[in-house]
């Protein structure tokens, strides 16, 4: 059985780990590897490797850091197909979707290549007589990332390129469900010339998470996952004195107005709802059909949904792969059962799907509900599976109120041909990322990713300039260089400009 080990101080190691967890092939239902699970001593070893490396890495010029990022960028691009297949094999998503994930992660690496410009400070001459003032930013030290299974390449790349380029060293705790991508990335960093100990990987479960949150020498923690765990990470990490950004769950709405191009909307809703088997924090999981758009829209979505081909992620003809584990399959099917019991109309039923030749795989077919009401748990809960629900609203105002009543505020979209309706929507919704005729409004790397309400704990979003701010701390210097024997002008009053 293939064993997936930690990467600490520039090499693979089992460390003090004695526990392991299975890594499944979701397409076949068979175990394909085992991953070692870190103990607190392993986390400490990674932190000590990072602390030692930080003393030299922080002194490396920003130009040299940028050159390493450029080399890393070229290696990721060159190995993107290999990395995508590795993600697909452990996660289950189709290879084309995994390649898209790698590409979006690569965009953050490209953003980090511009670190000399991004770290430029400010300078003000003569803020007072013969006094200048200027600011600059410095790295924090050892920082950590705790990332989810659904984007094992992209989400870590939202974090570590910016953290490393700004002069920090990094400890990553990826999901134990699909851990190989992070170790693969470690080798690419080494090949790019990154010094040993700057990027470390510890695989593990809650034991490793708690060790990271409690470790006194980790200065900051980035997290992406469910809302309950995000709240836990934020509260425990900040209680230990760390800077924390914790991105939580979502229930992303798409509002479809009667004036929308319904064929266009239906195609994008199906893609956004069922892509990656719905295992995306930015997936559209709730459609709000306004006015008389409902019946026409549901018929179009139904026809497209029924034509989706579900199969192994490695099969180029598959539109959608399996979900990540058997437990996820059981949980998702349970939600569908309860939706039916609650009185929603199950338009497309994906339960019990069996794929020829892969009968033991973790497959759930796409499920479509209509006439869902806000009290049903198929609407209130983040199902994280291929379940798309349709609610009805009489007016656009009613639809906006529905979006705003959700405890989540990650992403939302509106489909309309009215610029005025879109403008009102984007100004009134309490959501961090908004799409206008774009169902998955994930910002480019030079903007920042983050939601509102229970979708984010902390005051900084991921990557972009907010990422640079998160991984650095500011200093402001006020300086004067008096001439020899010049009168000091010192007095006991509070200093003011003069």
Written overview of the protein:
By secondary structure, the protein is α/β, with parallel strands linked by helices. The chain folds into 2 domains: about 1-250 and about 455-475, Aldehyde Dehydrogenase, Chain A, domain 1 (3-Layer(aba) Sandwich); about 250-435, Aldehyde Dehydrogenase, Chain A, domain 2 (3-Layer(aba) Sandwich). It has helices spanning about 40-55, 60-80, 80-90, 95-110, 115-120, 155-165, 180-190, 205-215, 225-240, 260-275, 295-305, 325-340, 375-380, 395-405, 420-430, 465-470; strands spanning about 1-5, 5-10, 10-15, 20-25, 30-35, 120-130, 130-140, 140-145, 170-175, 200, 220-225, 245, 250-255, 285-290, 345-350, 365-370, 385-395, 410, 410-415, 435, 450-455, 455, 470-480. Strands 15-16-17-14-13-19-20 form a 7-stranded mixed sheet, sandwiched between helices. Helix 1 (about 40-55) crosses helix 8 (about 205-215) and helix 4 (about 95-110) packs parallel to helix 6. It is globular.
